[in-house]
Amino acid sequence: MFTLEIGGRPIAVIDTDEEDARELVDSAPFRGDLQRLLSEDKPLWDGTAPLTVRAATEEEIAEFEASDDEGDEEDFADAADDEADEGEDGEEDEEDEDAAVVLFLVPITDPDDDSDEDEEA
Fold it and tell me: What is the DSSP letter of 71?
């Protein structure tokens, strides 16, 4: 497991190998999500702060594993792969099984997602 730090602050644990974690963090769609998603009413990433991928600490791994029971994980596949697979039957589900699993270590909100409010009501 690997941790994404933004400007030295741990933001997310990524359950994949180092190469795939770096590839995910370097992808334009993921970086776009980091700029769109909010934590404490501010974007996770300002587009200029350094993005660092490092080995996850024991505490971060434990938090990730504990969250598995709570369902707090979000699956992120490389968006370029998702776009390429959209028209292919059956392959998208198989690709999703291999997708990196990302657990955000900070509270996040998606300003484009109204379904959270609808689900809680």
Answer: T
Total domains in the chain come to 1
* 8-state DSSP, 56: P
- For residue 46, give its domain range: 2-120
Mean pLDDT per block of 10 residues along the chain (121 residues) reads 96 95 96 95 94 96 84 43 43 59 93 60 42
Closest by CA to 6, choosing from 109, 105, 111, 110, is: 105
Cβ–Cβ under 8 Å, residues 60 and 13: yes
* Dihedral sign of CA atoms 82, 87, 92, 93 in order: positive
Contact 85, 77 (CB under 8 A): no
Regarding pTM above 0.85, the answer is no
In the chain the beta strands, taken as DSSP E runs, fall at 2-6, 9-15, 38-39, 42-43, 51-55, 74-76, 100-104
Q: How far is CA 56 from the centre of its chain?
A: 14
